[in-house]
Amino acid sequence: VRKMDFINLSKTSKESKNDSYTKQAQHIWSMLDDMATSNPQSYKNFIDKTLKEGREALKPPEAHMCVKTSLLEPKKCTLFINVFSWNRIPEPKNDSDPIPVFGKELIFDKNVSFINIAFSPQILEKYGKNSNQKEELDMLIDLSIKFIQNQNKCRIDETNFSVLNSNFYGDLAQNLVNLTQKQSEKLKSDLDIAKEALDSMGLKNSNLPDNLLNELAGIGMDPSSSKESKRNLIEELDEKKIPEYEEKFIQNNSGCIHEIRIYLPKISSFKECDLNIDKNEVVLNALNYRTLKIALVKNGQNYDFDENKIEAKFVKNKSILKIKIPCQ
């Protein structure tokens, strides 16, 4: 149906298209004006709800967990399964429906392999790594493995697997590009999101044709515009830099504190970071940045510390990651 809409659209003159869309847009604004006049509070609630849902719908995938297992065929090697939470993955309509999952092809990196897959946030909240029932987590991992085997025509060890402390393997930014490019029909499209937003206003599909929604959703964009967007994305990824940071040692009544401040203006949440601290260094992988490594050295030597007393806090309004490590 949508394909036919595009064909009809291509046969329509630009002027007549504009006239049709102008009338449709006037109809929408008229309904919004009526709502604002007759019930200002409902209008405000609607605007707030629509803006919130729009932001949620457009959020990129978030790394949820990384499962380590073994690939048996076509090549024997360690396999890392990066599981992402993504709002564009639909939920099952009822308990008897299969759980939707979206994934890409296997990637081989030296002597290991990895793959990126995604579930809806609601499914991961119920069955993911924070599930109260281990059986539910195992079921989700089993589903993931079967999906990967079927899609990639490979064989995976289904019994010996573990969930890592890190939420992902590899470069987070590259994994996101891999997962989101060339989206499948299984995903909610921009058209679906536009329909849902307008439906919540009481503007059903019978009132607005798909070709108008296609234009509103940006699906019918000029091909050169699409190419330009892809080119800009590649340039942005190529310009990734190591985050800037400051460190100092603070002496107080309880001892010495190694304080590190890492400046991350390109991210808005700690969920976009993967922080690891071992006895020798701090390693930070953050979205849109290259890997940062900070040696844990005091007076030219590594120092001992209690891992249980380490503090890490992300200050959202300043986009600063603060780390405090008690040193001896």
Automatic annotation (TrEMBL):
InterPro entries given in the database record: PIH1/Kintoun_subfamily, PIH1D1/2/3_CS-like
GO BP of this protein: box C/D snoRNP assembly; rRNA processing
PIH1D1/2/3 CS-like domain sequence ranges: 260-326
GO cellular component: cytoplasm; R2TP complex; ribonucleoprotein complex
Pfam family of the protein (one): PIH1_CS
Record-linked PANTHER family: PIH1 DOMAIN-CONTAINING PROTEIN 1 (PTHR22997), PIH1 DOMAIN-CONTAINING PROTEIN 2 (PTHR22997:SF6)
Sequence similarity: Belongs to the PIH1 family.
Name of the protein in its database record: PIH1 domain-containing 2
